[in-house]
Amino acid sequence: MKYVVGNWKMNLGIRESVALARGVLRALRGKEETPNIILCPSYTALGEVRKVLARSRVELGAQNCGPALSGAMTGEIGLPMLEDFGCSHVLIGHSERRAFFGETEAMIHEKISLFQQAKAMPILCVGESHEIRESGKALEFIAGQIDSAYEGVDVSQKKPVMIAYEPVWAIGTGEAATVGDVIEVHQFIRDRVSQLLQIEPEDVVILYGGSVDAENAYQYLREVEINGLLIGGASLKLQQFTAILESATEVILAQK
Ligand code: PGA
Predict the structure, then answer these.
(1) Closest C-alpha to ligand 1, atom 7
(2) Is 158's pLDDT higher than 90?
(3) I need a surface site. Which of 28, 39, 227, 254 has the fewest CB within 10 A?
(4) Helix, strand, or coil here: 213?
(5) Which letter does DSSP use for residue 4 in this model?
């Protein structure tokens, strides 16, 4: 199975989000085989997009959640609130959260721990900066991110574990990582996570993200090591996004 996740970031209001979600459903009409699709609108659009997606196979995701289930945290939105909205997935530790909002490894660990009792799944985002890649320490760095997020977290009730590998230098830059580099990192992540959490390698779902578009999506999707894609910019453009969904469907059919 392949996953395609659209991260709309802070870009679309309610009306635009509803229109885009409707467009995605229109493109799926009559298709028997589709990837697992998760759309992550802004918080304010979750309620309306949920209505559009009701009774469809497309799932709703959130872009972040607060570091506790409830409490005195002005401005934060807790995981139970997102579950109220019907969110099945939540992005955790996106590099923009880490870079612009000071999210530390400790906070990300707190957030990941909240999911142990929850129905929703976290999608932990990891990835190295350009400097770290240049220094040859990318894998070591990613291992640190994974270990600190998941150390001591009980996932026995919650599988698969979802990780998005998004090298910081590839996000929104047009400079996507090579397939070879992505495969190397994905293999590394799969080993690390399955050892750390004592789960089967196939219970680790790993997505690639960073400047994926309709032109380059297929080359990632056709690799068995790459379980799907996390898409920012191209998920805002209906034609691009639906072309990516078609690539995923093509791969699913070919690998059947
Ligand atoms: P991008 O963003 O596809 O625009 O590079 C990916 C992401 O930030 O999840």
Answers:
(1) 232
(2) no
(3) 254
(4) coil
(5) E
- For atom 3 of ligand 1, which residue has the closest CA? 232
**Listed residue (223, 158, 232) closest to 193, CA to CA:** 158
Q: Which atom of ligand 1 is nearest to the CA of 213?
A: 3
What DSSP line would sit under 123-147, residue for residue?
EEEE---HHHHHTT-HHHHHHHHHH
Structure confidence by residue, pLDDT tens digits, 209-226: 999 999 999 999 999 999
CA of 198 to the centre of ligand 1 (A): 30
What residues are annotated to the active site? 94, 166
Token duo for residue 70: 């409830």
Q: Which two tokens stand for residue 51?
A: 């209505």
Closest listed residue to residue 120, CA positions, set 162, 152, 76, 151: 162
Identify the residue whose C-alpha is closest to ligand 1 atom 2: 232
| Residue owning tokens 């609108």 | 41
